Give the backbone structure.
Amino acid sequence: MLSEAELDPLFNDARSEWFRMEGHHTYSTTVEQPRLRAYLAGEPYDQASEPTAWLAEIHDRVAGGLTFRKVRVLQGPLSAYERWECEWSYPATERAGQRTFVLDLAETPDPPALPDYDWWMFDERLVLRMHYDEGGSFVGGELLDDPIAAAAHVSFRDAALASAVPFPAYWAGHPQYWRRNWQDLPA
């Protein structure tokens, strides 16, 4: 199992694509917690609290020719964490150059068969299966570096992208999840 620090070379060595498949209802990372708490408390959006190093990395890599796409698998109604991602996190990463697509299983009549785990794929060659504990904390990554696994995940990526909706269109079509429309409601 690879630690978070051991993942850096996979990102650094990628030349053409980072692809992310994400499907947990919540994630627990130290860096996100202050922004998530502020969001849930109804505080105003603070651009200064954004993860500037990560956004700069996205911007620089995309400007250098790398494609960065993510499919976020959801099943409405959205969790508090998923609403925060959509309202505060994804707009920032989209501005930096990441393209996020939403596959809402509650709205997709015939969703593609996909693995039931989160993963990254680098240059259609290396696949990193992500492991999390029940609370959404990252436990470690498992490298799947054989050509058969890579080919299967390319097919999963393509099927997910074909069924997903670009994030901006998804979010515009779901005002029931916007904080201003629910923040006065009981939790």
Q: What stands out?
A: The mean pLDDT is 94. The beta strands are 17-22, 67-74, 99-104, 118-122, 126-132, 138-144, 165-166. The first helix runs from residue 8 to 13.
